Fold each of these.
Amino acid sequence: MNVKTTLILLVLALATIFALVCVLLTKGRAPSTCQHQPLEQEDTDDGQSLVFADLTPEEMVQVVWYLQGNLGVQLVDASRAKPSDNCIASVDLQVPAKAEVLRFLDGGGARPPREALAVLYFGNQPDPNVTEYVVGPLPTPTYHRDITVQKYRGKVPYHRRPVTSKEYMDINALIQRELRKAPRFLATCCESDGTDLAILTTAPRGFKSGDRATWFVLFHSVAGTGYYLLPVGLEVLVEHRDLHVSHWQLRQVFYNGQYFASMGVLEEAFVASLLEVVRIPKPQAEAVLGSMRPQRPPGSPGPLQYEPQGPRYSIRGNRVTFQGWSIAFGMNPNSGPRLFDIRYRGERIVYELSLQEALALYGSNCPGGMLTRYLDGSFGIGRFAYELVRGLDCPYTATYMDRHYLAESETPKTNQNSLCIFEHDAALPLRRHFSDSQSLYYGGLRKNTLVIRAISTLINYDYIWDFIFHSSGAVEVRVHATGYISSSFLHGQGTDYGNRVGPHTLGTMHLHHIHYKVDLDVDGQLNSLETQDMAYKIMKEPWSMQNTIERLYLRRERLEREDEAAFLLNTPMPRYLSFASPNPNKWGHPRSYRIQITSFAGEHLPASSPMERSISWGRYQLAVTRRKEEEPTSTSIYNQNDPWTPTVAFTDFINNETITNEDLVAWISVGFLHVPHAEDVPNTVTVGNSVGFFLRPYNYFDEDPSVDSPDSIYFSSEQDAGACRANPLACLPPAAACAPHLPPFRYGGFLNL
């Protein structure tokens, strides 16, 4: 063996040793942490979106200080105010008029003054009332003006005010005093002295304007589980209209199908053996109906979604941008999520997209259940959007945002991490094609979306509010219902109103109806409403005149007036309905956005009902009206406690005005009928309990705008699909060979309760 060969073998041996050392050194080592790449700046907003931004805690405090010093009346903190006191009920953003905002955003005009809307309860006056003030300019207010009469065409009577937490506390104290009048009955029926029973409100509160008498339903309460499935059969009616708490009275009692004048009368009937008592032992925590405690130890972790190079969306203040989308987001403490100035590729598609109301209407053979029509906006859809649980309510690596509100207190509160924003991989192609003839190729695009989400807990129900933005230019709005069902005590013909789901529990049937406002500005403010649908026409075949054919054709129509554009619930509606611009696309069709509704709504309350006008928005699956500044919302927080003389009646918006080349608003209702069943215990699942709608481009573009997506995939039979330069999917193994940086799990959602 010569020296040259020896040297070659020595070099090879050293190289082998070096390679083995590298392998041994790296074996078992954790992958490197993913490195975030800076995003290309696509946001040219320059802070303009702050015109829509929710109030900061500092601004809220300034409004409170201003009102305390400039109204000339004594204001009591709402958290301890009696009905006979004056107090600040809430402070929220006063959204500027659309014309002012557009002059600022589009025309180079002055920024509209930043103002707050303050709601005050004046109980300590000769004429008690609810008054709304606009206070400004922020951050240092110098003026206020009463807009109540202008906004509602009259004063707001005091009895319409929502019930405060303090009022509920005083009612509960009254109920506890009354329960002590039936000790033997409670010990027998419920193994209780009454102090450990949960008390649930119903609504509305009477049968005519001015009433304020509420049925309250009593349940066994077990720590760590929902009491909503544990009714004891006892319900009480409390009259609480008087401004003086000492004058409130318990008016009636219901137990197991019978009505009594008072708890004392009920006790007398029990002692005299004139009452059929159903003994319901106090449930034990380990075996209680509806417990959500895990029944098995944790398993291995499931799939985890993460961004190897960091989020591909950008958030600045109250605006988020993502692959051509730009959205200003916020939260109304009463009505919930609200989005403004939604743009795609720099063009405004939607000026306002906001939740308006959530109605839950129940049926039962118990008074509380048969009466209940919850209008959740009066309780606070946004206010009760609590902290989201990282990794379950939203992806672990989502961006979590705090929301602030001031309600029933002079001190702002924060629901931390109560809104999340994330990119979602739907594990589904947005579009794709495999070509197996002529030329051989594959082309496709992953369905990745931007999601803005909040979840409201409204007594027993949890509503998941999603606003989803697709790379095709479509907007998807979706709500899921979960949480606990509400229930009644099972007696008599109870199963005419639902299903038995426990030993003494009737899962009561109910409707969920949700209402949205969609102020579309399609290629400008002036739009018209166009419909398209299919029809068949019988005709002779041109090439064979002795035969006929049912030819499918497109039937087009432009709706001219509001009455034509008000589509009643559960009636046929054109399959294609679009907001159309007067301007054509490249192919000569009006640039349009289509409204596509996915809903399984139950029947609306009969028009003969004396309270139907208060929820008259529910008559329509879709109604299109001319936009008016004096018609900002389809309902009011005051409708719940006086539905017989509603402060806002949506049906009055529809007065047959022309809707051709006008600034239009679409009012959309979605919902479903829910008949609870055994599988709703412990909780209603989101599967199948989702409704919503799409806003889809329809000839708005000249082709699908997602062709510009950087996520597009294309390779042919002549290319090496495994090569990174030919197929971005082949780049994933090295690009994703890193460990995501997961922040530590923390949760503070119980702090503000």
Amino acid sequence: EIHIKEPIEKEVNPHLLPGELLLCEASTVYKYIQEDGSNRGTYGKLVCTNFKIAFLDDDSASDDNEPQFKNKIVGENDITLQCVDQIYGVYDEKKKLLTGQLRKYPEKLIIYCKDLRVFHFCLRYTKEEEVKRIVSGIVHHSQTPKLLKRLFLFSYASAAPNNTDGRNQTVMFDTLEDWRDELERTKGNVKYKAVTTNEGYRVSEKLPLYFVVPICVSEESILKYEGRGIPIWCWSCHNGAALLKMSAFPKEQDDITSQTQKAFLDGIYKTISKPPYELLKMDDLSSSLPSLQDIQIAYTRFKQLFLIDNSTDFWATDVKWFSLLESTNWLEIIRRVLKKAIEVAECLERQHTNVLLIEESATDLCCVISSLVQVMMDSYSRTKSGFQSLIQKEWVIGGHGFLDRCNHLHKSDKEEAPVFLLLLNCVWQLVQQYPPAFEFTETYLTVLSDSLYVPIFSTFFFNSQHQKDTNMSGESLKTQSAPFRFLTVWDWSVQFDPKAQAFLNNPLYAEKPKLDKSQRKTARFKHQRQLSLPLTQTKSSTKRGFFREETDHLIKNILGKRIGKFINSSDEPPNSFREFYDSWHSKPVDYHGLLLPRIDGPEIKVWAQRYLRWIPEAQLHGGGTIATAAKILDLMEEVQSLQVKMDEEHSQAVSGDVHSVPMLRNSARLSSLFPFALLQRQSIKPALPTSTWKDLEDEDDLVKRDDEFVDLSGDM
């Protein structure tokens, strides 16, 4: 006999966003707490809307004991339809993947999410008709192909037309002025120009409305092959060297076409080549980095390590964890990508050589490498607004196919590849190696990765600027006079209140000191970390700012004379990379200068916060870096409250109670995976008893305790 708690009326009404419609629901659904393999859990209602799948229990109806880090759009028991990875049904204790039409309905439902959560629902006590409706509804709305206009993005935008576009100082790069400002900021306007050739998308629908090319490239050249074969500017280094990208011509073509295209490329190179002033390294990323298919296969294997059904499964994989991790090849791909970014940085920084990244569409691995290089070399890209502007420039406006790569419409698995997640994983390596260099935290990166699957923001739900622009109007121009007002993900107030947003900002960020005029003159000659070794014995410039004009060169162009004469890696000394890498790491770190990630051996780590945050056994209670960060936030609040007191009194510091502001956190009670671990509000048994923690301080006892550790997990 099943007893359900009384306040069922509250559970019936899920919190619906503007434009959100309830499609189907089922009562008396039992949600397991997948902690120790037992059948403990809670009863409630399972609902499916055009935005999410949600489980509603007693806790959902009350606002008591809410976590400090609460997402206002997606609750702890909510799964957006785009976040659903796979759905399994359990028939007589056997798991079966659910897709399309179902002949028989399961007694249990397991939902694996793209943010690595796993939900287990028992439908044994639910009415048969409700089971049919909810299971077929969830499978249909989350797994079958759909049209773009059927995304919740459009329902939300039309139902909430007064949405404000909170840009939060993020440069959107959707105007010509934005590009010109970026050219000026990086001192790239000497050799490059922002063009309007693609206005009305007359060159290509894949290119943005505005972009930057070398000054000598003509409009006719851009138009000839729909932008292919044209070097497009990404960023300029302080020494004048530039990072460029180019979409290559298709490789398999008839001789006449390929000869014509070769002549076209040759013509462009001749027009803008002025050696020996400008050197160029071309890098075909499709041959020097893993393919998108390899990246997808590696990530698919990798994520399986974290989609844990229960505690027993966790400990079963724990014995061979490192070999399983290595066999996925995911960390090796991260290492290779970081190594490639260091190679590019060496060309720009030390060799003063322009780098041209080549890829079929220049919208996948080009985005990863160009973004990483800018994060490593430009301290502005390590601020929150700078990083967001970088994502806008290289990914959103740059034409990365988020819709296809994330498979939001479930149209083609072949196009799916976690390219943007790969970038965030690489940036995380830098953030955890050099925390003071970044204004944002790893929590910011984790939340950003989650936002990939929240379809109320347009940022990650289009393949190109053209696709977004053509879908801005309503169903028909007669009925919808005003275009849709889409939200941007960079307005964090939509998802989090100010207290929660505090976790996105790094309290230990080493801000760049602002010097007055008298200090600037002396500081200019002060030694800074400079690894640029001149190729010839020329007198180095005395200008040592981050962006430095090369006054001894005329306006220089970007490409070499002919394809056959380009510098390739084989021309460089074999130990050039290692020398550059070791030389940099032998000096103190300048958090506002060049940053090179450590990529040797175990330096490439698993992004624990993102991948282990839903696994209780993987948590350190009262430990981890978050305990330190939380304590610092407490101290900052304390200092701010004292400052307020001082300002009010207009006198010396008051000797009153320094704890007048209530503390938000208690570091002694936090898990190492806070703030996400708090979303699981059940009491979690520690993987080790308290007495064992003290013993672990002695390294000699660690090996002796291994058996106790494993035995204990079986008793849980």
Amino acid sequence: MGRTLQNTMINLGLQNACDEAVYQLGLDMEELEEIEEDAGLGNGGLGRLAACFLDSMATLGLAAYGYGIRYEYGIFNQKIRDGWQVEEADDWLRHGNPWEKARPEYMLPVHFYGRVEHSASGAKWIDTQVVLALPYDTPVPGYMNNTVNTMRLWSARAPNDFNLRDFNVGDYIQAVLDRNLAENISRVLYPNDNFFEGKELRLKQEYFVVAATLQDIIRRFKASKFGSTDSVRTVFDSFPDQVAIQLNDTHPAMAIPELMRIFVDIEKLPWDKAWDITKRTFAYTNHTVLPEALERWPVDLVEKLLPRHLQIIYEINQRHLDHIASLFPNDVDRLRRMSLIEEGDTKRINMAHLCIVGSHAVNGVAKIHSEIVKTQVFEDFAELEPEKFQNKTNGITPRRWLLLCNPGLAELIAEKIGEDYVRDLSQLTKLHEFVDDDLFIREVAKVKQENKVKFALYLEKEYKVKINPSSMFDVHVKRIHEYKRQLMNCLHIITMYNRIRRDPAKLFVPRTVIIGGKAAPGYHMAKMIIKLINAVAQVVNNDPIVGSKLKVIFLENYRVSLAEKVIPATDLSEQISTAGTEASGTGNMKFMLNGALTIGTMDGANVEMAEEAGEENLFIFGMRVEDVTELDKKGYNAQLYYDRLPELKQAVDQIKSGFFSPKDPNLFSDVVNMLFHHDRFKVFADYEAYVKCQEKVSELYLNSKAWTKMVIRNIAAAGKFSSDRTIKEYARDIWHVEPSDLKIPPPNEPRDAGQDKTPNGTAA
């Protein structure tokens, strides 16, 4: 979520008033804003997407709730010591959190372990351990519409009789200390992005948020007129018409068996009825195609922790496979491929399969990704129910990612096309009229230059590094991962360095290359990549021959509040994942909206950015998905490229020989060995095209006017990538609700009796 103060002032239309009031007190609002801690309750794109979605849902007047876990420790703080990443705990609640309100009156029990007893009246889950879920509510204001939604985060609390109820009179002190065991559930965020770690505590977290949330939803449904009870029990027929639940990846997949457990075991609905309601309630968003990221929980772990849920999953699977077998008799391989249970050394539950079978809609997050989901990853399922699979291209909120972080550009745009674009970003196309307006071109360039100077001053103050604000700011910020190919950027840096040294007199377009992002603490290769970038920076930045022509900076502790500073100052955005690996990307959209040009592969949303702006207005290079598939068929041989490309050979040899690590010449042998022998992401295959494309970038940068015109064409084409558009599509195609652009009257004005009626609609 990042910081809340400035976003709240903007959405409430109070920023100028607050700035002025604080100034009158002899204080500086920006200084105050810098004191607030980021809420870093997620890892990367997926968590930030949810935050943008909350902003858009409130702005569109949807009755929506965001549910999650109130981690005591969020994503670690990253320190760079001697070029290595070191993790520190993110104690973000140390000084309290003024935006949250604990709601102990809505505390709910969550059960773990125990056993299942079957009787004539049905299944009973008994002898469980109970943990209490305490909700904390954070307001989510819409933009200038007097709407405030709620983000509800659950915190784990031990019940007061914890460890004291079972004839455990003996050690009272130990029993109280053991309360920590229960409360550890919401202690810390698992810091992996795009990687599955099958730990018991992680599964506990996933079930904890799901069980608490579903009880909360059902409580709210029963309290409404739709869930009105007859003398016997609640009628749940209208449940899917009143409630839509969107699963943000497979992490909350246990919601499917949990809702079935509530309907069948507790509410005593017949299975078929319960299953129909469940399927119509859930929809699933897939966020990645990397096999190592797909959740596959061991059956024996689920059996120990959630025995009833395992039985329900088996039943769902049995009925699912019976259905497949009736359509495809004797196709045992299809049954194996489509089963929710994977056989092997350890039996595992494929959570993505569970989500597909248990949802009425499945979507990818960019056109190319949704195609890959349909035709490769889940092709058997898409063949069975093609109408279930959709695309919903991701977006970003223009409130935080333009108004808040780049007020200079936002104001400049408003002067030309009015202020309405903030709620309807498609209006940015009106900027095409000004692409040849010399004054506008100069003003756009001026805003960018001011942002660069401001960021340069920030770097100087915080990191004691001096950079040249007239150099091209070439920025690569995102989680560190092999598929995102920070290594390819690193090879380009080494290549530029070698070219300057070879011919110091030759014209060279000065660059400041900024790379930032966190590596998962257990991801050895990602940590080596950080060390390599810092080792290269050490050499490049201290070579007198290079001088100010080339500077390399590793940006420490990349997070939302730092993104808000670096993105508006960027000239060139690096989006260089291997085609077919980045589901969408959202940083790419933020850079586009803030006047950077993109160098990128035809991957994720880059494809649609090129479609909107025209491919000639992005720097597109490298293999397409088809080329990658083709190369896989014939076999990728890294050595071939190394032998054929002298500049690549030189760069790799320097890494290998210890040119960048003279004290430990073999320091990067693991990296080099990976690049030659098991590089799944084919860095060498795209190196030549990447370097050539970068030459075109430098050439255009020399012509400031032509560069800025291309920038304007990009901003004018960025309208599609508002999360408002994304959410309207979810609302229309999946949740079946109508966004309302009615501005609720402020609380100090009396409401019309007629306006008080809310139209019937689903709560998402």
